[in-house]
Amino acid sequence: MGPAASTPSRRFVVLRARLDRGLLVLLLAGASGRAVAQSTSAPDPRAAQPERPTVATHAHTVAPGYVEIEVGLLGIHPAPDSGRLDVPGLVKIGISTHVQLDVFVDWNRTSLSGRTSSGVGDTALGLKWRVLDKAPALGDFAVQSSVKLPTGSPERLTGTGTTDFSMLLISSHATGPFSLDVNVGYTYRSGSGLPVPKHSTLWTVSPAFTVYGRLGWTAEVFGYPGTRGLDGYAPEVGMTVGPSFVLHRSVVVDAGVVVNVRGLGANALYAGITWNVGRLPFATGGQRRARRAEALCHN
Is 134 helix (H, G, I), strand (E, B) or coil? Predict the structure, then answer.
């Protein structure tokens, strides 16, 4: 690692880059409710399909013409005089039976060496395409691409100042009360490579299961392999552990802890909610079929 890698401000901007993987896979957005709220394919279009709180996401998509919203809180304190609170939001819109549009927004507050700043973070747009259903070995398989825009401010530590292009490969399996999501991703960033590297990768393995009734649990392991050169950083590994609860078929809440196994700097606490709002005020093709499926599930 270069000398700049040890400065606290760079550490927070690098952390910002981790959190801002946007719709690809953010430290806040994942799978604890999956074994409860999601099956291999949700027959009810109003059933919430959380993509939070883990780094991993699943291969499933919101029903065509339907909207789902996720909002979370993440708090991390790497040192007594530094801390960060993130409030990420994700809007998912079903485009077709196998395609979903994602819009990610974020607000965050950072305290560093007596200085506190807050504001709107970076914004991301993504598209998830489920390519395969119940394929051998791969299970439900999807490709998610996204672009993150530098709407935040590096000076205020609300953004990385880079435009990021990301690709994520997603494999999801479900058997009875158990589910497993495996992700592998790559991100290319604009800029000089300082303070965040131009290239980064990630991997995640996220099992989840139903504990009892509406209560679910997840225990994910994720990692960011290290990079070389002046902009390099050491490998980082963490775990996301916590419960989720289905309040209603369309509402799932979660809470838990992100454990620093190696290099993340500190543990973090999270909480959030996923709400399937329902269908848009128009319906064509697959959207009409989704309405009929909702009526059948409701009855």
Answer: strand
Question: Which tokens sit at 30?
Answer: 């994942």
The domain limits of the chain are 3-298
* Dihedral angle computed from the Cα positions of residues 249, 134, 285 and 37, in that order, rounded to the nearest 10 degrees: 10
Instruction: Specify the amino acid at residue 265.
Output: G
- 228: Cβ contacts below 8 Å, ≥ 6 apart: none
Identify the CATH assignment for 3-298 out of 3.30.70.1450, 3.50.50.60, 2.40.160.40, 2.60.120.10: 2.40.160.40
Least Cα distance to 18 among 211, 202, 147 occurs for 202
| Each residue's pLDDT tens digit, 131-175 | 999 999 999 999 999 999 999 888 888 888 899 999 999 999 999
| Helix H or strand E segment including 290 | helix 286-298
Q: What is the spatial distance between Cα 119 and Cα 39, in angstroms, rounded to a whole number?
A: 37
- Amino acid, single-letter form, for residue 177: P
